[in-house]
Amino acid sequence: MSNTAVSIATALTSGTAGLGALNDDLSDLRSFEQSFALSPEEARDFGPDGFSDFDLMAFNARFETAPAEEIIAWAAATFGPRMCLTTSLTDALLVDLAWRVDPSIEIVFLDTQYHFPETLATLEVVKERYHPNLRVLRPDFEPDDLWQIDTDLCCKRRKVQQLDGLLDEKDAWMTGVRRADAPNRADTAIVARDGRGLIKVNPIATWTDAQVDEYIARYDVPVNPLVAQGFPSVGCWPCTRAVADGEDARAGRWSGTGKTECGLHL
Ligand code: SF4
Questions:
Q1: Residue 219 Cα, ligand 1 centroid: separation in angstroms?
Q2: CATH of 42-239, one of 1.10.10.10, 3.40.190.10, 3.40.50.620, 3.30.750.24
Q3: What is the residue with the minimal CA distance to atom 2 of ligand 1?
Q4: Residue 240 CA to ligand 1 centre (angstroms)
Q5: What separation in Å is there between the alpha carbon of 199 and the centre of ligand 1?
Q6: Helix axis angle, 19-34 relative to 53-63, nearest 10°?
Q7: What are the E-state strand segments in the chain?
Q8: Going by C-beta distance under 8 Å and a sequence separation of 6 or more, which residues neighbour residue 248?
């Protein structure tokens, strides 16, 4: 047991008189633990299991007010090709950010075979403008009508299983999820361990809608034409409607079904 741990144990057995010392020692312990937060080189050796929950807390504290570019640069340096970025192409903001930081970051688009023509057109614009390190995943089966009877299973087959297959070869992935997207995303961490055990990085988790609009205008970022038609969150055409003024951005996704997520963001 370390000296710090011994003194904490002593304080715990010495009643209230030891509480001041205990607080000091806990502070020491946090500093001690923080000194062991992984460097990019160490994380590369250890993979996602190399990050303790304390490491993730420390990174979140550090990144809460950091520019998105700094978070992306850290993730790219830490995980390299063992990380990819997924985009739904409602807009290309995260693609633009990542491209400015490191054009080699792998971009992944899940083609469910049910995308709006406008989304597929946006994909072509992104290819032309950024020439990204792009991987488009498509199901190896034909379109069907499963979405009419079981949206969870349809999402699982056309989205989740495709992404899971890709993530089998990754340690981390990056998404454009924001806390402002919807109430069920309000607690989104910047760096988290997902349900697969991988590290999930959300560099714009803290961004407001106004920040998004400002960045898109400043860098003339490609935006899906459907956004201007009342679709602030664009998914598959059978499961996405335009939203009315005042509705949540994601209110048009699986509207009226109670479903709010496709299952990618475990
Ligand atoms: S969003 Fe709809 S069409 Fe797209 S994969 Fe899910 S259920 Fe199927």
A1: 31
A2: 3.40.50.620
A3: 239
A4: 9
A5: 25
A6: 80
A7: 83-86, 106-110, 133-137, 172-174, 191-193, 199-201
A8: 182, 183
Residue type, 84: C
38, HSE (Cβ side, Cα atoms, 13 Å): 23
The ligand 1 atom nearest the CA atom of 157: 5
Sheet holding 191-193: strands in order across?
133-137, 106-110, 83-86, 172-174, 199-201, 191-193
Q: Is any ligand 1 atom within 6 A of the Cβ of residue 239?
A: yes
Is residue 166 within 8 A of residue 139, CB to CB? The reply is no
Encode the chain (266 residues) as per-residue pLDDT tens digits. 334 333 433 433 343 344 444 445 445 444 444 444 555 555 555 567 778 899 999 999 999 999 999 999 999 999 999 999 999 999 999 999 999 999 999 999 999 999 999 999 999 999 999 999 999 999 999 999 999 999 999 999 999 999 999 999 999 999 999 999 888 899 999 999 999 999 999 999 999 999 999 999 999 999 999 999 999 999 999 999 999 988 888 888 888 888 888 877 76
Max distance between CA atoms of the chain, in angstroms, equals 71
Rounded to whole angstroms, how far apart are CA atoms 215 and 204? 11
